[in-house]
Design goal:
The protein is α/β, with parallel strands linked by helices. The chain has 13 helices and 13 strands. It has 2 domains: about 160 residues, Rossmann fold (3-Layer(aba) Sandwich); about 150 residues, Rossmann fold (3-Layer(aba) Sandwich). The strands form 2 sheets. The chain has a 7-stranded mixed beta sheet with strand order 7-6-8-9-10-12-13, with helices on both faces. It is globular, with a radius of gyration of 20 Å.
Length: about 350
């Protein structure tokens, strides 16, 4: 199958949940679901809740926002236990590791070990040592979703837009996902004969990334002659996406990312992504298997969407004079962004 057909099949943005049967509520009592999110209730969180509302499954939601502070997580663990909830839902790697711990090292006094847990928006749950494999978590109370586009798919999609030989990978070393994705990107790039220029964000004395480091690293990428800025995984760059994408445009650099918002809500050039709302819906399906069907989490495979969205910000393409070929436009979703002053 050629790349065009792969992209049509994989990147059409059609999600698989429409095929799921509808649940008949009957006289069932409500389920209590405790959700822990990292930076507020965004699209995945909303998609998860909508799944239950659309299917008339009675649920009481308790949502707790860590606000990017890991120190809040132990309090959430204690609260969920005291409330004796039916299910805990975790958003992101930091939250999930803080709530359930690492496989083989979870502490019942510190982590959730006897309440079913469904995780979502975790880039590499195996590499993060949250689960044993995608076939089974290897943990009695845990299942979840995988949302990341394989790096080979993303790189091929970028190559379909414009051939490149050198990418600038900007990432945050204090994020586990950033380090894991950098390793994966190195491997895939080597297989494809692509050079990776790694640019690590500067950290302050507390070991946290410095916002002012973003334009500095983009400038370095330009000086080193990269063809594309490539985003692996970074909550920090997502939180500062406007500064990041606008600086890339100022330096005449196209930016490719696996985050929908970098093109749809900011000024990145192109994105190949699993839509967060759809990932949330899929996590809702996983939760339904536990709560309604009574399936043990360990027996539910870690599921992922089998189709992705290819999004192009045409305003950014215009500003960069970096227009996509017609072959890509046949399957891409085009966004006409607002010009940045």
């Amino acid at each position: 199958m050629d790349l065009r057909n792969q992209c049509i099949r994989l990147l059409a943005g059609v999600w698989l949940l429409a095929a799921f049967p509808t649940f008949a509520q009957g006289d069932r009592e409500s389920f209590d679901i405790y959700m822990v999110v990292w930076r507020g209730c965004e699209d995945a969180c909303k998609g998860f809740q909508d799944y239950f509302r659309d299917r008339n499954i009675p649920v009481n939601f308790t949502i707790r926002n860590a606000e990017r502070d890991k120190k809040r997580l132990p309090g959430f663990v204690n609260e969920a236990k005291k409330m004796d909830v039916d299910l805990v839902v975790t958003w992101g790697t930091s939250v999930t590791r803080g709530i359930v711990g690492r496989i083989g090292k979870a502490d019942p006094d510190v982590h959730v070990t006897d309440i079913p847990v469904v995780f979502m928006i975790v880039a590499d749950p195996v590499g993060a040592k949250i689960i044993a494999s995608y076939a089974s978590s290897g943990r009695l109370n845990i299942t979840g979703t995988r949302n990341r586009v394989p790096e080979k798919v993303l790189m091929k999609a970028v190559q379909a837009y414009r051939k490149f030989n050198r990418i600038g990978l900007i990432y945050n070393t204090n994020e586990l996902n950033g380090r894991l994705k950098a390793k994966e990107i190195r491997s895939v790039a080597e297989q494809m004969g692509i050079e990776v220029v790694e640019l690590k964000l500067d950290l302050n004395e507390q070991g946290k990334p410095i916002v002012e480091s973003i334009p500095k690293k983009v400038a370095e990428a330009k000086e080193m002659g990269v063809d594309f800025i490539y985003v692996g995984s970074s909550s920090f760059l997502m939180a500062n996406r406007d500064l990041f994408t606008n600086t890339a445009i100022e330096h005449g650099l196209p930016l490719a990312a696996p985050y929908e918002a970098m093109a749809a809500k900011s000024n990145g050039l192109l994105v190949v992504a699993s839509r967060y709302y759809n990932v949330g819906q899929l996590a809702g399906y996983q939760a339904e298997q536990v709560l309604v069907k009574g399936i043990a989490p360990i027996d539910i495979p870690i599921r992922g969407l089998d189709r992705f969205s290819y999004i192009i910000n045409m305003e950014t393409a215009r500003r960069l004079k970096f227009y996509p070929p017609l072959s890509v436009l046949r399957y891409a979703e085009v966004i006409h962004g607002t010009p940045t002053k």
